[in-house]
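Hi C.,

You asked whether I'd gotten around to modeling the 896-residue construct. I have! Everything is below, sequence then structure, no commentary in between.
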Amino acid sequence: MPRPSSGGRRDAAAERLTPNGDPLLAARFRVPVPPSTFIRRPRLVERLALGRHVPLTLVNGPAGAGKTLLVADWTAKEGASSHVAWLTVENEDNSPGVFWTYALEALRRHGFGPPDTVGSPARAGEVDHALLARLAAHLSERSEPVVLVLDEFDRVAGSTEIADELQFLLRHVGDGLRLVVISRTEPLLPLHRYRAAGQVIDIRGADLAFLPQETAQLLSRHGIRLSEQGTRSLTEWTGGWAAGLRLCILAAQQAEDPDAFLKDFEAGQSTLADFLLAEVLDTQPGATQDLMLRSSILEQIHPDLANTLTGRDDAEPILAGLQRANAFVESIGHSWYRLHPLFAEILRAHLRVRCPGLEPELHRRAARWLSATGLFAEALPHAADAGDWEHTADQFVEELAIGRLLTGLEAARLDRLFSTMPPDTPGPAADLVRTARHLTRHDVDRGLDHLRRARDNLHDGGYPSAARRLSCALLRVLAARMIGSADLAEDAAQDVAVAERAIPAERLEQHPELRALMLTDLGSAQLWAGDFDAARTTLSAVAPLDDGPDTAFPRHECLSRLALIDFLRGWPDRAERHARAAVAEAERGGLPSAARTGVAQLVLAAVALDRDELGSAHAHLEQVFASSVAPHDPIVRAEATLLRSRLLLAKGHPRAALQVLDELEKPRAAVEPSPWVRERTALGRASAHLVQDRPEVAMKVLEEVGFAGPENVVAAARARLAVGSALEAQALLHALPVGQGEGPAVTARTLLARAQTADALGDDSAAQRLTARALSTARPQALRRPFLDAGPWLQHLVRRQPALTRGHDWLPPELTGHAPGHHAHGLGPDVVTEPLSEREHEVLERLAQTMSTEEIAADLHLSVNTVKTHLKNIYRKLAATRRGEAVRHARELHLL
């Protein structure tokens, strides 16, 4: 829709008012004009252009990263301006009524309606839901989408009302609207859903950073040439930050020889320092210079904090004046300011020259002020820079912050901070910090040494505080988990509970990561020890806890381990749901692949193997090893080894499967053995020996560990059957307890073993009945592997009684009358006219699990319409007209 000319019509902003009665400001609807030195970067423009095909584009980065100019240039140069409505957001827009008044006016001023019948908000503090519904209905009727750009959205990013209203609009507007959000912070929209569905274009700070070749273009645009190495060094020193680059280049333009200036800057920055000190610092009054020098130790400056550093009370007007004068001071809101990072570094160097020895005292003052203000995380680096490490460690422990060394967004920063703590720093708090650092590095021996010393010295200076006792007990739970001792973990967990009772509830609520970590570690130790019921109860208790960033990893880990318990008990559907929830939690929490446990992928691989989807199982297993945590987790190491062995056995390599299991026989220092790992290892060995027709060896392996679990009893019965001892097999199976919580995967194998025994004893009726029950049990989850592992007797039974598998087209071809490689109904090997996409393959896998369209949509975080589109493509590519036919064709083509 072309934008109507502004001639001949009254100014739209003059026609309308905000709900507060203020006139609308026309400048907020104007698209900024990039300066002549602006560098156009095609790699980012292409990303923006992709946003025309998705509901949301997020341009997210720090101040000065070039976000606004990037989008403004795109709208002007790509012909996009005829379809773009622009709004620059202000702090006053935190009131939903004001925000939507401006948003509606932006659409109207740029020629996209909506008509007056849509209306405008009547009150500043709220918006009538019906108004938003009318707006959505209006936009959904457009033949081409309108692009609404919300610049500086971080000014209202904390408003849940506005975020919910925007989400409502996006959800109901169809293809009529494309939203571009320019912000320093991520909006409160459900971004994880958009990302999981591929419905958002993300352009982040790392994307906005200049590349060396782009820096070269910027230098050239300013008439400056620099060597390739010099350009690369300049880019690296500024981190590609657009404002920093321009600052350096503008400074270089003031020099007589800009090229020599930047080369000198590359060598030691002395020329740049002289220039900035002369042109900025030295032009200020003495009091202002003193404030700037002393405040250079701060990342962010508050007037009251600056007064603490100077001993005066004039910081507020000085900082405001510097900000207005663009003297390398930026307001970041709520009375806080920030020095330009490059300038701050130069000022710190000058402070050491002008006032030697003052810096540690300034850090002490800053630490005290920040701590008293409740900004402990910000105070900690200053306390460390002051050199008072014993006090810093004490304060860290007393603030209940020990858990943030173990998990959360601050873990890496805190680890770097304490990495400079001298090894001879005394006190139990320092030893607790060292314990946490060593255990997170999986250095159990050194961690235990420091933990013992911390416990021995815990009463130094009198009875230890509750915070110190809690931190010590929490680390004991972690250490117990790492050595595989559920008893020690439960003992330490009791000490955690005692210490917690001495701490005010409101303080504990501020640190949900402590409870989450303790439960995760305790549940993991119980899981390793084979106490599945206790582990499930413990791990499930994490779900109701706070779901903030500091608990993202524990929640991901607990969900993963719940999935493993479900799988070990034979409930693959529950296991898969928990595993996918764990993956979703990791995505929502922004956990990179290397920081995840790997357990969720292990479970997904194991479930895929039970369904005989070997390709999918292998792919999930490969993802396990992308985790840097996995190699140090006994549970992951053991289950990954067991799964690799099972995969090899499924592919017909029993000798290789046995060799893989040898890895589990290698002793692991300081880790107690796990009963279920021992039993499953024996089961794996026995299964391989049975495939090699060595039932006597299989029986011996199983007898060495006993028949504690139903799967081991089933394997022992199969071994007895292999040597012709059907009555012994029958006795074993009759003694098998029932009602122990085993799921369909275990039940199906047990029923098949009973059926095989009945067949061996000549009871054909019982064999058919038990096989039919096994089929009914396995069908809802397409558990094919138990039937493939059952042995030749089952194929013989099916040949005698083909009606048994009638209607079970989910079974492998050799059990349904189709030979491997046979193409039913004339389906040829080249029926797939084009390969399935990754997303289509994911939909196909769930189709094979008999999931409904709505269930597939929920599982993959897609809309139902999107799933229907994928299904149409799948049917077309597989020459199918219905679900069952598509799944059957896919299996015949080995796509499943």
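If it helps when you're writing up: The two ends are 47 Å apart (CA to CA).

Thanks,
B.
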